[in-house]
Design goal:
Blueprint: E1 6-10, E2 16-20, E3 28-33, E4 39-44, E5 51-56, E6 67-75, E7 78-87, H1 103-114, H2 116-120, H3 122-135, E8 139-146, E9 152-158, H4 176-194, H5 202-205
Antiparallel strand pairs: 1-2, 3-4, 4-5, 6-7, 6-8, 8-9
Length: about 210
């Protein structure tokens, strides 16, 4: 990122918000295009119009020039595959990706669910395990992609990751075991916490 007139200001909940160091207002986020044709993300002050910074985009396309967003869930610090969404556009959400009308994409999704390490590579799995260990969550999720070079592009990880209920359509039956695996892992974790020995402190039971 190229910082020009960007500064930080703490807000009420203790988080940091970026502001224009001159006008003291938060920037607008806009898209720009470099001469190479690549997208960049620009921060522009809405008051004075000064460019506050820019981020170069990362190439999230796979070897077939498709965009993917992959989600794994974290339960008791272990990762479980949930879905692999494939799209022809860069902004990928499963419900509007090219999945419902593409048997081939659903096949690739199924391959990921059946054998995550084979589908994304052991290096990517190791990276996800390190992210999960760093997050140190009882429950959460990670959204990411693996580009053509095998690099993991980490999109987000949080403790409120959603598992959207599956429709009754039989074409989604291949996904149901992955959901069941996560539900079973949650039940095991909660049962273990509930039946832990009396000698443990509450803070230990929550971890």
């Amino acid at each position: 990122m190229i910082e020009n007139h960007l500064s930080g200001m703490k807000i009420r909940n203790g988080a940091m918000m970026f502001i224009c160091s001159t006008c003291k207002v938060p920037p607008n986020f806009v898209f720009g295009v470099e001469q190479t044709g690549e997208f960049v993300y620009l921060l522009i002050c809405p008051k004075c119009g000064i460019g506050l910074g820019e981020w170069n985009s990362l190439d999230a396309r796979d070897s077939e020039e498709h965009f993917r967003k992959i989600r794994v869930m974290i339960v008791d610090r272990k990762i479980y595959p949930l879905h692999l969404a494939i799209s022809h556009t860069w902004k990928v959400h499963y419900f509007r990706a090219d999945m419902a009308h593409s048997e081939e994409n659903r096949r690739k999704d199924g391959e990921f669910l059946d054998d995550m390490a084979r589908a994304i590579g052991s290096r990517a799995v190791t990276a996800l395990e390190r992210i999960a260990a760093t997050l140190d969550l009882d429950y959460g999720g990670i959204d990411f992609a693996v580009n053509a070079g095998g690099d993991v592009l980490f999109f987000e990880g949080n403790a409120t990751m959603v598992m959207v209920p599956l429709a009754a359509d039989e074409k989604w039956d291949y996904r149901r075991p992955a959901f069941d695996n996560v539900f079973a892992a949650v039940r095991r974790m909660l049962t273990a916490r509930a039946t832990a020995g009396d000698g443990e402190r509450p803070s230990q039971l929550l971890r």
